[in-house]
Amino acid sequence: MEGAAMIPVIRPWLGEEEAAAAAEVVRSGWVAQGPRVAEFEAAFAASVGAAHGVAVSSCTTGLHLALHLLGVGPGDDVVVPSFSFIASANAVRYVGANPVFADVDPLTGNLTPATVEAVRTANTVAVMGVHQGGVPFDVDALAALCARHGLALVEDAACAAGSTYRGGSVGAGAYLAAWSFHPRKLLTCGEGGMITTNDPQAAARLRKLREHGMSMSAADRHAAGGVVLETYDEVGFNFRMTDLQAAIGRIQLDKLPTVITRRREFAERYHKLLAEVDGLRVVTDPDYGTTNYQSFWVVLPEDYAGTVADVLAGLSARGVSARRGIMAAHLEPAYPGEHPALPVTEHLTRRSLILPLFHQMTEAEQDTVAGGLIEILRETPR
Q: What residues act catalytically?
C-alpha cells in the first residue's frame, strides 16, 4: 500500500457552505463571541429538546463549568467511568474533587446503577454519566439512583449529538449536559462545546462564568451603545466560543440528520460484513435508544491470539487507519494509586478497536476495512 492514501478513521464533512459562513463572519468585523454564538446556542438547544444552550470553548470546559456550578470541590468524590476519554476525569480534578472510577456495562460501555453503587462513597456528591461513543446510557436508571442518594447527575454527551433515548434526543431532560464539537465528532466547529440545561438560572450563571464572571457580556455591552461599566461578581473563566466557530457549527447542525442517517446505514453494512467472524462483537443500539455511531468499535474474539496492536498494524499495512478502543483512564500515569477492580473496562480497552466510519466513505473503502479485518483475524492461529 506504499504511496496509497490511507482510509482515515474519520473525516469531517466540511464544504463551501461552512467556508462561506466563516467568510461572512470575517467580513462582519465581529469574530469574537457574539450574535452568531447566540443563534447557534438557540438552534442547538432546540435540536436536543433543551430550553437553553451555553456555548463554550470545548466539552471539557463545559464539564468543568457544570461541576463548578454545582459547587463540587475539594473533599468531594465524583463517580466517573474509567472507560472514557481522560477529559471526563480531568474535569473532576479541575474543581479539586476526586474522580472515583467505576466499571461499565460490557455491551454499551456505559455506567449502570450497579457499577456506580459498587464504588459510591460517603463523600460522593455527583455522578458523571458518559454516552460513550454515542451509545446512550440509561439516563432514567442512573437518575433514579442519584435521586435516591441525593447526588447530582451530569451528562457527558461529548459524542452523542444525534443519539436518542426513549424516543427523544439524548440530553433532552438533563439538568446539565455537555457536548463536543471536536473534529472527531459528527458536528464540528474545529473545536468548541455546549452546555444544555432546562434551568434558566443555571444558564444565566453559566454564561457569566464562561466570560470571566462579567455581569454583562462583551457583545451586550457593545450593543448597549452607551457607557456601560460591567462588574465582576465572582471569579470566572475564559471559556468562550467565537462567532467564527458558531457560524460553522450552525451549518453543521443542519447537516446532522443526513450525517446520522448515512452513518447508521454504513454501520448496518458493517454488521452484515463482519457477521461471518465468530466471536467478533460490534457496537449496536441498546434497547432504550439509538446510537449515532460516533465510534464504530468492535471487540476481538476471545480466542483470537493476537493483540489490538497486531490488528492495527495489519490494517495499516492494508491502507486502513483504525484506532485503539476507548481508553481506561485509571490505567494512565496521570491517575496513579489504588483503584477498584474494573474487569470489564480493562477487557474492553485491551480487546477493542475503532474502525473507520465517515460521511464520505464509499462501499469500496468499507469493503477494504472489513475484508482486511477478517483476513487478519483468520491469519492468526486460534
A: 185
